[in-house]
Amino acid sequence: MSFTVDFYEEGRKNVRKTIILVMVFLAMMVAFGMIIDLIFGILPIFTLVFLSVALIQILISLSSGKEIVLKSVKARPLKTNDPEERQLKNIVDELSIAAGMGKPPDVFVIDDDSVINAFATGRRQDDSVVCVTSGLLKNLDREETSGVIGHELSHILNKDVLLMTLISALLGAVVIVQLLAFRALITYLRFGAIGAATRSKRSSKKNDNSALPIIAFLAAVAGLGALFSFTGRLSLLAVSRTREYFADARAVELTRNPAGLSRALRKIATTSAKLQTANVATAHLFISDPLKRRINNKTSFFASLWSTHPPIAMRISILENKTLTEIEAELSDYI
Q: Between 20 and 30 A from 80 (CA), which of 220, 268, 295, 302?
């Protein structure tokens, strides 16, 4: 399979598409509140509430999103007295200069020798972070590590990291609203409705339906939250897959060596274990799915809707200019 792409034009397209997705998602939050307001005739209470929740999520993400991600995966700062980690720092510095970055990103490490993986996070180029697992340092040679670091620097250069964090924040806001409404509904059904029924029985009133409006309201919020969460998750996953292909291409441009990244992806596919500190919220940030979900290696239409990363065999086939069938046959025992 041939690989030709205008890196800079594709980068501009990628940023425009992602910004549009962010705006659409923000509009969905407003629409979410408006629908509830119109159903119950209380406009604009929930419109303002959901818009406020989304904006607060964005502010939290912008102010401390990097620290939250690093803490959640139990990453630590680089040890400059460790030879392997010092070499990693040299690679990051060299490629940052080659990429024209004013300041190299800080480097963090996750202590897990069984996992080969990496990700980047941060708001801007000058406060960005590259994080790798200790397993990557122990299993990849210098060329392979350079390919992975080039991939992560590409995410920083392309502003993927900031945009993906913002999309995650918007999606997280909807999920929070959905969960709160669902739990409130369950709690009311277990205690509130039972109490109302008891009171109704005691007062000998027949056909007392006072609980129905509250149940309908909570069910509507939970149901709409689930619908918007589903739509938003599809948008997030679509952006995530697209940016991985582009970051691979940009890494090749930085390192002038597609073989380094393709060999690294092979080792990730064949030897890396699941990263225990990763979760669904952070998985899309990594160069390869840290949760090792098989759906990310499928090429069907349904799988492509739900995968956070493009199939690793497809990425290797592009980098090595080989057929997908050939790479899938080679990796059939692992993917």
A: 268
